[in-house]
Amino acid sequence: MFYHVRDMTYSLIEGRSQILSGTLPKDELTELKSKVIAKIDYGNRILGLDLVVRDENGNVQDPDLTSTISLFKAHEAVSRGINERIQEEKVSPPFPGEIPADISCQAFPKAGASLPASVTSF
């Protein structure tokens, strides 16, 4: 998990530098901002942090100006999207050529059942 979070952090730093450079066309800038926001929301979920509800432009919604129902629906939609992404990652191997495996402990049968592992093919 550490390496996954580290790679996401590097990706966010790279995205931030591209956004701040001011060299991207408006459509690419909008797309990059939405990707960065999605990564932040995903990272917050896997780290057990709060989910920030945003509008369609990526701005944080003000709970004092937004109705409770609207906040709930927006939170539910973002949460559903993040859960789908997490499920997709569980189904597919994290790295190309990696095969998920389940290794049983035969040496110490009373110590535990099995260990999740992965085998990489080259």
UniProtKB/TrEMBL annotation:
Pfam families per record: DOCK_N
Residues of the Dedicator of cytokinesis N-terminal domain: 2-85
GO biological process: cell migration; myoblast fusion; small GTPase-mediated signal transduction
InterPro entries: DOCK (IPR026791), DOCK_N (IPR032376), DOCK_N_sub1 (IPR042455)
A molecular function (GO) term: small GTPase binding
A cellular component annotation (GO) from this entry: cytoplasm
Highest taxon of the lineage: Eukaryota
PANTHER family, A to Z: DEDICATOR OF CYTOKINESIS, MYOBLAST CITY, ISOFORM B
Name listed for the protein in its UniProt record: Dedicator of cytokinesis N-terminal domain-containing protein
